[in-house]
Amino acid sequence: QQQVRQSPQSLTVWEGETAILNCSYEDSTFNYFPWYQQFPGEGPALLISISSVSDKKEDGRFTIFFNKREKKLSLHITDSQPGDSATYFCAAREGPNYNVLYFGSGTKLTVEP
Amino acid sequence: EAAVTQSPRSKVAVTGGKVTLSCHQTNNHDYMYWYRQDTGHGLRLIHYSYVADSTEKGDIPDGYKASRPSQENFSLILELASLSQTAVYFCASSDKSSQNTLYFGAGTRLSVL
Fold first, then answer.
1. Is B42 in Cβ contact with A106 (below 8 Å)?
2. What's A18's DSSP letter?
3. Which residues of B touch A106 (CB under 8 A)?
4. Most buried among A26, A56, A93, B69, by the most CB within 10 A?
5. What's the pLDDT tens digit per position in A2-12?
6. Which among A91, A84, A90, A89 is positioned nearest to A109, based on CA atoms?
């Protein structure tokens, strides 16, 4: 069963708009949530992360909002740029076995100029 | 900068044949991972390793074996390749001290015919 779920599967926004990517998880022991960005032909790379003790993490145009009670989080990309077009993966780390990351199925973002 | 190198970058194999995917890291990381990427499934963990000469099963280990002969090298072995193993395979490494940030290789595209 999928431990981490993402929606939508694909998203298209215009340049300058805010893109919102959603993620939810099942296991309450998950306590660390990184987001990875993947460009075509490349491996994923860490974009931004949040721990379960925080409800918000900001890094430039990228912000994670975290709701522990609902087991949901979202990645907001403000002032979206064509260079942000990529697939974004939400991931979660299991508390007791913290070196194993579970990934969602990804959201493919397209930013139209 | 972290460096994870995978070889080959692409491979065509015949059903029932043996396939070995190789991964080499120069990060001096203790942890290494093999993930499989399929459209709609995101990244799924096959095998991982904490230390040389030891491997652990991930979420989908069936049909795969792993080998960690040294800290730098981690191989994924398909003893009897099947059509269902057609996918893109990613190797990654991480250091316990870096909040489990995974550094991915560029991937190996495997086609089993």
1. yes
2. P
3. 42
4. A93
5. 789 999 999 99
6. A84
